Amino acid sequence: MASSNSSSTIMTTSFGFMISLAFIFAFKLSEAQSSVPAVYVLGDSLMDVGNNNHIQGSVLKANYPYNGVDYTDHKPTGRFSNGKNTADLIAEKVGVPTSPPYLSNTNDVFLQGVSFASGGSGLFNSTGQGFLKKTISLSAQVDYYTTVHHRLVQQLGADGAQQHLSKSIFVVVIGSNDVFAYFEDDDIKNSKTPDQYTHEMITILQGLITQLHSMGARKLVVSGLPMLGCTPAQRFGSSTEDCNSDMNNMASSYNQKLSSMLSGLQSSFNDISYSYIDTFAVLNDIIENAANYEGQSVPAIYILGDSLMDVGNNNYINGSLLKANYPYNGIDYPGGKPTGRFCNGKNSADFFADKVGLPTAPPYLSNTGDVFLKGVSFASGGSGLFNSTGQGLLRKTLSLTQQVDYYSMVHDRLVQQLGAAGAQQHLSRSLFVIVIGSNDVFAYFDNGNNRNGKNKVTPDQYVDQMITILQGLVQKLHSLGARKFVVIGLASLGCTPAQRFNSNTEDCNSDMNTMAIKYNQKLTAMLSGLQSNLHDINYTYFDTYPVLYDIIQNPANYGFAEVKAACCGLGKLNAGAFCTPLAVYCPNRTDHLFWDKVHPTQQAASILVNTIYSGSPPHVTPMNVQQLIAL
Ligand SMILES: *[C@@H]1O[C@H](CO)[C@@H](O)[C@H](O)[C@H]1NC(C)=O
Ligand SMILES: *[C@@H]1O[C@H](CO)[C@@H](O)[C@H](O)[C@H]1NC(C)=O
Ligand SMILES: *[C@@H]1O[C@H](CO)[C@@H](O)[C@H](O)[C@H]1NC(C)=O
Ligand SMILES: *[C@@H]1O[C@H](CO)[C@@H](O)[C@H](O)[C@H]1NC(C)=O
Ligand SMILES: *[C@@H]1O[C@H](CO)[C@@H](O)[C@H](O)[C@H]1NC(C)=O
C-alpha cells in the first residue's frame, strides 16, 4: 500500500476498538436502540464493510489477511479490522443485520439499510484519490444514497418512505483522512491554514447533511475525530514517540466546529435529532478511566410476576384455564399469533427487553433445565403473593413463592456454569423485575369469605401480609445474588373495565383503589427500609397508580380515545367476558388503554415501560431504570 496513505489503515486498527466502545457508550445514552427499521452508514474505513472490494484499480482494500483474523471463519472481508468493526457493533446494538456494502448490489432497495462507507474517503473529493488509490468520497456516497432513496419511494410510496426513514438512523463517520491529507500534502498545507481547512470540511459536511435531510434523514449519529496525532503512524514520525500535537489540535478544532454546526442545523430544521459523539473526549476518558466503562451493561433480566409480564409460562401448566394462547390475544403480535401473552401485541416484558437490548426473557417452563444466561421469566398469569391467589378449580398458576423457588434452581445452575464469583458478578449487574399484587387485591374483594377475604381481615391487615410476604421473597432473591430490583406498584385497579362493569354508573371501585394506594405506600417504605438493612441493593420503584390514573383523566394527552371499555370482550364496556374467539374486538387497538377487562394494550404497555425506563420522580423513584443500569 502506498505509504502516504497507510496511516488511515493503521489508525483503524489502533482506534477501531475504542471507537466502537465510544459508539456503544453513546448508544446506551441515547435511546436509539428502540425500533429502528434501517441503518444507513456513510463514512471511511472505520465503517467500511466491503465497498472497496468492488472498486477496480485501487489498492485501498482490506480483503486480505491478517485483516479478519478474528472475524467469523477468520476471513478477510474488506473490513479494516481484525474482526467486526464499528458498523457491525452498531447493527447488533439496534437489532438489525449489518448494513451491506452498497457496491455489492447497486440495484437493491436495501430495506434494512445500506453502507456507503469506503476506506480512505473524506469530505474533500480529492482525499484518498491518486495513483492506484480510489475511494468513494462522502459526496459520491450521498449521490448513491439519492438512488436508494428514489427506489424506496417507488417501493413504499412517498409517505411510507418518509415514515421509514424518519425512524432510521444515519451514521456519519468521516474526516480523519482529510486531516491526514492536510499534513501529508504540502500543497494543501501551504495553501490553507488549519482553521480554513477545518472550516471548509464543516461547510462540505453541512451541505451533505442538508442533502440527506432533504431526502428524509431525521436521526443522525455523527462522530467527531479522535486524537489522530496519537496514532502509531504519527508517533512513528517523532524521535520521542510523542503525539503529533498539531494534528490533535486540528482534530479538536474540527470537533468544536462540528458540534456547533450540528446544533445550528437542528435549530434551523426543527425536525432532526442527533447524537454527536465527541470521540476525542470519550476516548480520552476511556483511556483515563477505563474502569468506568466496564460493568454498565445488563447481562440478564429476571422477571417475576403475573399476567402483566407472562410471556407464556401458563401455556405449560396442565389443567388450567388461566391461559392466553388463543385468539384474539396476539392479534398485533408479530405474525398475529397468540403466544400466551394477555395482550393484543407485545407486553411490558417485551418492551423491557427492547430497552436494554436483550431478547425477551423466555418462559421458565419452556425449558426447565436451561441455565438462561440472558435471563428468564417466571411470570405467570393469575398469580399473587399469597399461595392461594389464582388457584382453584381449573385455575393453576405459579405463586411468587414458587417463582422464587424456580429462580433458586436457575441460580444453582449459574453457579455451576460460571463459578460462585462469576455468577455473583453476572447477577449483581442484572435486573430483577417484580410485578405482582393485583390478583391478591382482586381476590380480597372477590372471595370475601375466604380465610383472609374482605369479611375476615381488614384492608390494612391484608396489605401488611402482602408486604411481609414480598419482603421475605426479595430478601431471598438478594441472598441468591440479586442486587438491582425494578419493583412495580399497583395500578388504579378499581378503574379496570372489570370493576366498572360492576357499577351501574360505570364508576371506579374506590375501595379497591384505596387498597392499591395503601399497598403502594407500604411498598415504598418497605423497599427503602430494605435498602438500609441490606446495604448493597439498589432499585427503581414505579408508582403505576398516578401514572395510569392520569392517563384515564387525560386520555388525549397520551393518544388514547377509550380508557373505560376493553377493546376485546363482550357485553357492557366489553367487560362481561375475557377475550376469546367468541368475543368482539375494537378495530383500532392503539387508541384503547385496555385490551381486555383487566390488561392494558400493547400501546399502554409501551408508554408505561418508557416511563419506568427514563421517567423521573415522583412517579419513578429513587431513580429510573436507565440510571439503575448505569450504577
Ligand atoms: C465533489 O464532486 C461533486 C461532483 O462529483 C461536486 O458536485 C461537488 O461540489 C464536489 N465537492 C467539492 C467539495 O468539491
Ligand atoms: C403437562 O403435561 C405434559 C404431558 O402430560 C407433561 O409432559 C408436562 O410435564 C406437564 N407440565 C407440567 C408443568 O406439569
Ligand atoms: C407458600 O408455600 C410455600 C411452600 O410451597 C411455603 O413455604 C410458604 O410459606 C407459603 N407462603 C405463604 C405466604 O403461605
Ligand atoms: C445504591 O445503594 C447503595 C446502598 O444500598 C447506596 O449506598 C448507594 O448510594 C446507592 N446508589 C445510588 C446511586 O443511589
Ligand atoms: C387509531 O387511533 C390513533 C390514536 O388515537 C389514531 O392516531 C389513528 O389515526 C387511529 N387509526 C385509525 C385507523 O383510525
Automatic annotation (TrEMBL):
<feature type="signal peptide">
    <location>
        <begin position="1"/>
        <end position="32"/>
    </location>
</feature>
<keyword id="KW-0378">Hydrolase</keyword>
<keyword id="KW-0443">Lipid metabolism</keyword>
<dbReference type="Pfam" id="PF00657">
    <property type="entry name" value="Lipase_GDSL"/>
</dbReference>
<keyword id="KW-0442">Lipid degradation</keyword>
<dbReference type="InterPro" id="IPR036514">
    <property type="entry name" value="SGNH_hydro_sf"/>
</dbReference>
<protein>
    <submittedName>
        <fullName>OLC1v1022667C1</fullName>
    </submittedName>
</protein>
<dbReference type="InterPro" id="IPR001087">
    <property type="entry name" value="GDSL"/>
</dbReference>
<dbReference type="GO" id="GO:0016042">
    <property type="term" value="P:lipid catabolic process"/>
</dbReference>
<dbReference type="InterPro" id="IPR051058">
    <property type="entry name" value="GDSL_Est/Lipase"/>
</dbReference>
<comment type="similarity">
    <text>Belongs to the 'GDSL' lipolytic enzyme family.</text>
</comment>
<keyword id="KW-0732">Signal</keyword>
<dbReference type="InterPro" id="IPR035669">
    <property type="entry name" value="SGNH_plant_lipase-like"/>
</dbReference>
<dbReference type="GO" id="GO:0016788">
    <property type="term" value="F:hydrolase activity, acting on ester bonds"/>
</dbReference>
